[in-house]
Design brief:
Blueprint: H1 2-9, H2 21-28, H3 33-43, H4 52-65, H5 74-89
Helix pairs in contact: 1-4, 1-5, 2-5, 3-5
Length: about 90
């Protein structure tokens, strides 16, 4: 289970540049419900220089623990959210 969270955390790659929030929000507008929930939970907390990987990892772990997300589809649900969140760090 821990390996799944570590793999999930690798979805977000930090970059020194900070893009427009509109790009990330436009990307998120087309996300499936589970991915959108992850994005919505993370978007207000994602910041340049922050440990964004740990942030998303914690959100997904909480959703799995609460039964809102299956451990078996956590990675595939988080990947689209991670792609949109990357737009904030690129």
């Amino acid at each position: 289970m821990k390996l799944c969270y570590i793999a999930l955390a690798s979805l977000l790659i930090s970059s020194p540049a900070w893009a427009d929030r509109k790009d990330a929000d436009a990307c998120a507008a087309n996300l499936p419900a589970g991915s959108k929930a992850i994005y919505d939970a993370a978007i207000g907390q994602v910041k340049p220089g922050a440990d964004n990987k740990a942030l998303v990892q914690g959100i997904v772990k909480g959703m799995v623990d609460a039964g809102q997300l299956s451990l078996f589809n956590a990675k595939s649900t988080a990947q689209p959210a991670g792609e949109c969140l990357k737009k904030l760090a690129n």
